[in-house]
Amino acid sequence: MSDAIQESTTLNNESVRRSQVGLVVSNKMDKTVTVRLERRVKHPLYGKYMTRNTKVHAHDAENDCNEGDTVRIVECRPLSKSKSWKVIEVLERAQ
Q1: 20 to 30 Å CA-CA from 56: which of 25, 30, 48, 81?
Q2: What is the pTM of this model?
Q3: CATH code, 39
Q4: How far is the C-alpha of 67 from the C-alpha of 15, rounded, in Å?
Q5: Tally of structural domains, the chain
Q6: pLDDT attached to residue 16
Q7: Is the pLDDT score of 63 beyond 50?
């Protein structure tokens, strides 16, 4: 998940949208899931790699995602105060 930042282009030369892969940690809201994005950063002084997390809200129009699913999300226009990502696909279902 750490190297999941990818650039993808859409058809007809539209804008380039950022997509990331993350883990669904909450699906208690209607048409919204909370996705945890992990990244690895190097400590500036000691050089050790550390895992950092960011939680974002993503739009799930079909209420398809469950907790523990691995999903691909893409950046979009702001849909609400805290929601500016959309779920594109579910990569792996939770057991």
Answers
A1: 48
A2: 0.80
A3: 2.40.50.140
A4: 31
A5: 1
A6: 79
A7: yes
pLDDT at 75 over 80: yes
57 within 8 A of 82, measured Cβ to Cβ: yes
Bridge partners of residue 75, in order along the sequence: 85
- Copy the structure tokens of residue 56: 């974002």
**Secondary structure of residue 84 in the 3-state scheme:** strand
Tokens 């594109």 sit on residue:
88
Closest-CA residue to 24 (of 84, 94, 79): 94
Q: Judge whether 69 lies within some domain.
A: yes
Secondary structure of 4-60 in the HEC alphabet? Answer: CCEEEECHHHCCEEEEEEEEEEEEEECCEEEEEEEEEEECCCCCCEEEEEEEEEEEC
| CB-CB contact of 92 with 68 (8 Å) | no
Which whole number is the average pLDDT over 28-57? 97
In a domain, 80, yes or no: yes
